[in-house]
């Protein structure tokens, strides 16, 4: 599909999603959010895509929610382009929290990124605040330009954690740091982002995309797509496990099924023959029978 607020390009196995509203610092609209979700649907369904990079056009990564229409963006009683049009209230005026229209839109975006079958690399080219910061949390690798700045500014706007950030942020930086950052709402520069563990590298602006591409290229050239899809979900979902035995059960299923696969044979052969592997397995058709395991009763 054609997009209004983002660009989606695929080249040499790498999908690039570019937030493309540079005149308003790539502020997040509901239209942009739905387009990003659709782009992830495309990348998951395309076996040619081995990794996804997300960045922003111009000076900013994402300047948070588009506030050009005022507080309506946060008000579930207001009509906003791209948002579910159903009522979020019962007839007596109380909120129906189970209604689709009551859901946080940023949370839908975070959950879609979380569910990705391809690794996701955030290339933070400039400022990101609010959802512009929290949408980065479910990404697997985050690289910052020296010009990058992030702020979790919810309380400064009179709202609360969104985009599932109350789950992701403490798991990335620890509970004390997560509360310090979100209570103050202050904006962190690139060096402090790295110190806090929010990004793995800080690079010169001109090196940002080449660095992200180099990481994506290493994944694309050397790893089995089905293994990556499984490992991504294994690692993220292990954060909610109560005992290592749960990880052992899933890893055992993975070793059983992957160990007899054509990918495993190719992985060993390419190692012995000292060449790059050519893995035949496809995410679209070759995921094992226990996937998605978290929908089983004992994991739900």
Task: Please give a quick description of this structure.
With 300 residues, this protein is α/β, with parallel strands linked by helices. The chain has helices at residues 30-45, 105-114, 131-134, 165-173, 175-184, 190-196, 208-222, 225-238, 244-259, 262-272; strands at 6-11, 14-19, 51-56, 120-124, 127-129, 141-145, 149-151, 187-189, 201-203.
Element layout with pairings:
Blueprint: E1 6-11, E2 14-19, H1 30-45, E3 51-56, H2 105-114, E4 120-124, E5 127-129, H3 131-134, E6 141-145, E7 149-151, H4 165-173, H5 175-184, E8 187-189, H6 190-196, E9 201-203, H7 208-222, H8 225-238, H9 244-259, H10 262-272
Parallel strand pairs: 2-3, 3-4, 4-6, 5-7, 6-9
Antiparallel strand pairs: 1-2, 7-8
Helix pairs in contact: 1-2, 4-5, 8-9
């Amino acid at each position: 599909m054609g997009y209004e607020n983002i660009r989606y390009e695929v080249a040499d196995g790498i999908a690039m999603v570019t937030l493309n509203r540079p005149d308003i610092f790539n502020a997040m609209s509901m239209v942009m959010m739905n387009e990003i979700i659709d782009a992830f649907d495309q990348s998951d369904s395309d076996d040619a895509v081995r990794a996804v990079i997300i960045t922003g056009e111009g000076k900013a990564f994402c300047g948070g929610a588009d506030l050009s229409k005022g507080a309506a963006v946060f008000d579930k009683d207001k009509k906003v382009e791209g948002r579910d049009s159903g009522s979020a209230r019962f007839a007596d005026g109380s909120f129906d929290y189970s209604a689709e229209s009551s859901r946080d839109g940023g949370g839908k975006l975070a959950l879609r990124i979380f569910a990705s079958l391809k690794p996701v690399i955030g290339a933070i080219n400039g400022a990101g605040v609010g959802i512009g910061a929290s949408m980065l949390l479910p990404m697997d690798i985050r690289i910052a330009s020296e010009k990058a700045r992030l702020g979790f500014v919810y309380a400064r706007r009179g709202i609360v954690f969104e985009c599932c950030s109350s789950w992701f942020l403490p798991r990335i930086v620890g509970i004390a740091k997560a509360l310090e950052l979100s209570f103050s709402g202050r904006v962190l520069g690139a060096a402090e982002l790295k110190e806090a563990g929010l990004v793995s590298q800080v690079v010169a602006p001109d090196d940002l995309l080449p660095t992200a591409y180099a990481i994506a290229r290493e994944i694309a050239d050397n790893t089995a797509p089905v293994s990556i899809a499984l490992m991504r979900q294994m690692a993220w979902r292990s954060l909610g496990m109560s005992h290592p035995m749960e990880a052992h059960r899933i890893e055992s299923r993975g070793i059983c099924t992957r160990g007899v696969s054509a990918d495993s044979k190719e992985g060993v052969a390419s190692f012995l023959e000292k060449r790059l592997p050519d893995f035949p397995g496809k995410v679209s058709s070759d995921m094992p029978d226990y996937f998605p395991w978290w929908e089983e009763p004992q994991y739900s």
